[in-house]
Amino acid sequence: xxxxxxxxxxxxxxxxxxxxxxxxxxxxxxxxxxxxxxxxxxxxxxxxxxxxxxxxxxxxxxxxxxxxxxxxxxxxxxxxxxxxxxxxxxxxxxxxx
Length: 97
Prior knowledge:
Blueprint: H1 27-56, H2 63-78, E1 85-87, E2 93-95
Antiparallel strand pairs: 1-2
């Protein structure tokens, strides 16, 4: 069986050709449309995987887990359970209960 394979190096397209009532119901009509959609899926999958890797960091884990780990480290540094202010890498102070 022939397959359409998405191209991860392809170009994301935000439009596909609209089928017209006069179009023939043959692969030459449908395949280019399906190919565009499949390639878009592959490109988006790659982008999501890259974001998941970035959010997971090098040690892995969810963003919530990484924040919890950060809070634990801060609590252990000053010896109490109520850190007052945390300076985030982006330069904004945030209160952490």
